[in-house]
Amino acid sequence: MVTTIGGPRVLLRQLRETMAEPLASQERLDKIVGLIAENMRADVCSFYVLRDDGALELFATRGLNTESVHLTTLRLGEGLVGLIAAEAEPLSLDDATSHPAFAYRPETGEEKYNSFLGVPVLRAGQTLGVLVVQNADRRHYGEDETEAMLTTATILAEMIATSDFDNLIKPGSDIDLRRPRMFNGVSFTDGIALGKVVLHDPRVVVTNFIAEDTDAEKQRLDAALASMRVSIDAMLDHGDMQPTSDHREILETYRMFANDRGWVNRLVEAIDNGLSAEAAVERVQNDTRARMQRQTDPYIRDRLHDLDDLANRLLRVLTNTNQPAHRDLPENAILVARNMGPAELLEYDRKKLRGVVLEEGGATAHVAIVARSLGIVAVGQAQSIVSMCEGGDDIILDGPLGQVHLRPTADIEQTYIDKVRISARRRAHYAALKDRPSVTKDGVEITLLHNSGLVADLPMLDDTGATGVGLFRTELQFMIASRLPRLQEQVDLYAEAMEIAGDRPVVFRLLDIGGDKVVPYLRSAAEENPAMGYRSIRLGLDRPGLLRTQIRALLLAARGRPLKILVPMVTETFEFRQTKQVLCKEMDRLKRAGQAVPEKVEIGAMVEVPSLLFELDQIMPESDFVSIGSNDLVQFLTAADRANPRVSKAYDPIGLPRLRALRLVVDAAARHNKPVTMCGELAGKPMEALALMAIGMTRLSMGPASIGPIKEMILNLELEPVKAAISEALSVGANGHSVRNLLTEWADKQNLPMG
Known about the structure:
single chain, Glucose Oxidase, domain 1, 4 domains, eight-stranded parallel beta sheet, phosphoenolpyruvate--protein phosphotransferase, Pyrv_kinase-like_dom_sf, PEP-util_enz_mobile_dom, metal ion binding
């Protein structure tokens, strides 16, 4: 094996000195490739940069024809250099020309070189370019030399990220790291937001890359690892960390990785090659991220997030950087995060927050629900966006399309500025409709209500003209709290909600936690299928103190006014009767204490468990009203996890089987003369709302932003012919057409606004 001259530490010191010299970009690059060639005893050293058009451009060389610099290009995946860039893996060959991927470029004069070693230049897991050394003699580049090249590439990546290369770049192209990017995610809310990136959990920026004393750096690494392991163990030993919680599983994964000898050995090896401890963490995580990003297995990608978080945790210890507090936001801030809970979102200044982008999460996640309530544009499942953006980057969210434009070009930005102006005009148009009765052209009155869960969004009742709140999610108060809200805290929240609503009714849904609605201070055993497990009214009836306290709080908050209570996830009628008994006992208790009770209490059942479809004639006489929770009902009817896009998108919620199930509820409510309201996400989408009205549903509850578009559609709608067409389809089938296609045809016939 041929060793390098002086070793990688000598080369790194030379590179650091070169980077500090007052040189032009091209002059600096030329000197760097020369230093690498000399240190590696190579005849050739070349550096290729990946441009935003997918081409790898030769930026500097020592040994190849200098005329080929900025002239020679290879496509991603083309030739040995393109292969390295595409796979983000080193490649060592003693006879490069015999490799099937070899691509000859005559202008370079490289035909006389046989040996080849190329490594990817990575930053944040992204391939920025390729660093290559070549020799005329056949030579085997060993692991030590490959490691030395990878270490050198780490420094080169930082140079690319922090230096000005504009004078070297061809017009119309850019270095890949900072090029505009577009992400196709999942829409959480409507609306468009333009602003600046604020990282919810920003990466630690490494500034010290080169070790002065490798032994000292290894000692720093050992101390940081020990400190991190102790902190993880302490969190695992915390009293609130039950053995079966999801949080504990995550920390157990962290502990496993933190004690993995292979990971630690790679860190030590990077330090031995001349990197500082923090640069070693960055280097190893770059390599790991580059490999794992190319995996399709979702389990492996989840582990990548764990490793990213662990590496960032270790970097915070090494750099003595605390977890960032929620600082003052810039105007038009857009949060970017892997994931976050509703409580974390509510900690930010909502006056400056315009949008949220998540790498994970589904449209029914509770952070998405809170974003809708606050009128914040939100997009989820924007894969790898956290590693590809930096604080202060320009960013645009297209809510309806679920698209994110990072560092948009000027023409894209102007397009969205125009869209925002049009959207403002549309909002003004909807505002002009707020006082108009929501009645179809053929005289059918449709009641439009808000879904809510935060006092902050209740003033929007005045803006939209909605007639009340069809669903107030009381669990959000529990989810954002660090402990169980006391009786008076609940009373204050419910009373404030009723005060803001005024004469308009508010339907308070009893606590619906469990499943994906995690409340860490309420311990429960782990479940294989939590959506169908110990949650909602099942939990409330099993913990009567919790249920009684909430019902008492609602009764006290009413202060003599009418009160509406909704019981979630009723599976059988007897559960509803049990809940009514608790309500009656609390009413009697208040009367005996001489306290005011509501002048009228109405209690309704939420239809979201399919078994209740077969007890409709039993539950209706017991209820004052019923509401439909389409999110869970559709999930259970289709056996498709609503948070799993691979299956949930396969089942149209207004497909014939689901629409028939919904009509069962509407028909039963009509037989028993009980009002029925749709409270799920379906009601806020024009096409879905049209389907609901077509089966006879006249009460729709939705997010505030949906009221205007739905009302405009209603005002232009002649409902009876659509009802007749859907009734026939439900009875005899749609003749090969989907319900959605049938409704689209009617929307086109009547020229309905469906945007």
